Recover the amino acids of this structure.
C-alpha cells in the first residue's frame, strides 16, 4: 500500500497536523520525512564519481555572505580512520563505513584572502565562529540529503568534538579551522526505526516565542516516544536513581547535566576565536 504524507508525518511526530496531507508521499519530501541515521553498512564501496557528485551537491548550499567557510576532509587513509576509531571506540561504524568525512568550519581561508588582498579580517570573533560553524552545518546537511537521494545512508558524528585536539592533529588542521562533525557514508545494511520528533506545536512559533505549554507537551511527547522509541537503559542511576517511567526528557536532562566537550572549547579559544570566554 502506498504511504501518504499523513502516514510519514504520524510516524515522525506521533500525531497528525492541522491540515490533511493524504497525497501519496513521493520525491524529496518523502525522503526527508523518512530520514534515519544509519550505523551499519554493507561492504560495497561508494564510487569516486558518486562521492564527487555528492560533494558538489553539498557545496552548492547557501553560504553566509558568500564567504564559503567550509573545509571537508575525506579520511581515505585506513590508518587515519583507525586512529579516529581508537579515539571514539563506542562508534565502530566510523571505521566500518566505506566513507568517513570530517566537516570543518574554516575561518582561515578568508583571513589568508584578506592578507593576499592587503586588508585585515576584522569580524567579531563570536560571530565569525558562528558563521563558519553554520556554513559547515548547512553543507553537511546538504550532503546528507544528496547522499540519501542516491540511495546511501549517513550517520553524523559530533563526538569528534570530544577529542578535538587529537582529531586536529590527525588531519593537520591549521589555526582557525575546527572540526564540526564527522559523517559516516555508505550503503545501508540496517533498517532502524523512525526517531520521533518533538511536536511542531512546541517548536514552531507564530510572531512571538511561546513555551507556556512546554511541560504538558513534553510529558505527552515522552509518552508517545516511549511507545515508538523506548529507551533501553537509564543514565546515571547511581546519581539520579531509577525511574519506573523513563522518557526522552529524563534521558536528555541527565545527559546535559555533565560538563561536555571542554577540549573543543579550549581549541576554539586558542585558535583565534578569543572573545568566546
Amino acid at each position: 500500500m502506498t504511504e501518504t504524507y499523513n502516514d510519514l508525518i504520524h510516524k515522525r511526530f506521533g500525531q497528525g497536523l492541522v491540515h490533511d496531507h493524504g497525497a501519496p508521499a513521493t520525491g524529496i519530501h518523502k525522503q526527508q520525512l523518512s530520514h534515519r541515521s544509519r550505523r551499519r553498512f554493507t561492504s560495497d564501496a561508494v564510487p569516486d564519481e558518486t562521492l564527487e557528485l555528492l560533494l558538489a551537491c553539498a557545496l552548492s548550499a547557501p553560504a553566509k555572505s558568500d564567504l564559503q567557510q567550509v573545509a571537508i576532509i575525506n579520511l581515505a587513509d585506513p590508518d587515519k580512520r583507525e586512529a579516529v576509531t581508537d579515539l571514539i571506540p563506542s562508534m565502530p561504524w566510523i571505521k566500518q563505513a566505506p566513507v568517513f568525512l570530517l566537516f570543518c568550519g574554516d575561518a582561515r581561508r578568508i583571513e589568508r584572502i584578506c592578507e593576499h588582498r592587503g586588508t585585515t579580517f576584522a569580524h567579531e570573533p563570536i560571530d565569525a565562529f558562528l558563521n563558519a560553524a553554520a556554513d559547515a552545518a548547512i553543507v553537511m546537511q546538504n550532503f546528507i540529503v544528496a547522499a540519501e537521494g542516491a540511495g546511501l545512508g549517513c550517520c553524523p558524528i559530533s563526538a569528534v568534538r570530544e577529542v578535538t585536539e587529537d582529531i586536529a592533529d590527525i588531519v593537520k588542521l591549521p589555526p582557525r579551522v575546527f572540526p564540526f562533525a564527522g559523517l559516516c557514508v555508505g550503503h545501508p545494511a540496517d533498517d532502524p526505526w523512525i526517531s520521533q520528533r518533538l511536536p511542531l506545536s512546541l517548536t514552531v512559533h507564530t510572531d512571538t516565542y511561546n513555551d507556556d505549554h512546554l511541560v504538558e507537551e513534553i510529558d505527552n511527547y515522552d509518552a508517545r516516544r516511549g511507545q515508538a522509541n523506548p529507551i533501553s537503559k537509564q543514565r546515571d542511576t547511581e546519581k539520579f536513581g531509577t525511574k519506573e517511567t523513563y522518557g526522552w526528557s529524563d534521558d536528555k536532562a541527565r545527559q546535559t547535566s555533565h560538563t561536555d566537550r571542554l577540549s573543543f572549547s579550549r581549541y576554539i579559544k586558542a585558535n583565534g576565536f578569543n572573545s568566546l570566554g
